[in-house]
Known about the structure:
With 271 residues, the protein is of the alpha/beta class.
Amino acid sequence: MVLIEYSELEMLISRIREISGFDFSGYARPSLLRRASRYLTRHDMNVEELMQHIEPGGGIVYDLIQEMTVNYSEMFRDPEFFIKVKSEVFSYLESYPTLRFWVAGCASGEEAFSLAILLKEAGFLERSLIYATDLNNRVLNAAREGVFTLSSTRTFSENYLLASGKGSLSDYYHVAYSKAVISPELRKNIVFSLHDLTGDGVFNEFQFISCRNVMIYFTLELRQKVFKLLYDSLSMLGFLCLGKRETLRYSGIENNFKVIDSTLNIYQKIQ
């Protein structure tokens, strides 16, 4: 593994910002160090060599950005979260004639597909639209295809059953060429789109926003900026969902929300 110094990382962050406009300065440094080191190791180069190859209009800087952004998820990750959403959130949203959901930092689409299944089983999917966004175009392309390995579906299926799914996860995909392909019926209600939480603005108003396991990679200052964006994107009495290790504390907007579940970090906007 090629190891880099913090000073070298800062130079790299500055160079990426200069070339692409993408700003990693608000990201937690340990995570960036690991990912930058992994990129250098894979391409058998050091920081100095990488800096020489980063140039305007070149593909390397965008390849590096893709590598340094986080893109891991599972379908029905944290099954108890989905149980709580069904029991505490859907009972409130069932009266809405139309519903808009936002999965921010959607990676390869696992949470968006999980939410679509949840909505399908609750009878809400036909009047719902799910916006699933990420800043990593590579994983967004994978999400649009909705194709997963059969080995990953074993974990997904276990999670689905633990989340009190009504049937079998296999009801929502078919097998083709030893891959699992998500049903078109689920995919037609999902819009996958490029969006940078740290730099882009409000693009719609939502009754439900899931931004789970994203904030842990940001500094406090950047978290506060992103929380403001999420707040402005949420309709009154809408729901905001964070990851288990995340919290609204020190967000600057905590007093505008009612806590629905303090362990699973589900909140409702009340002002």
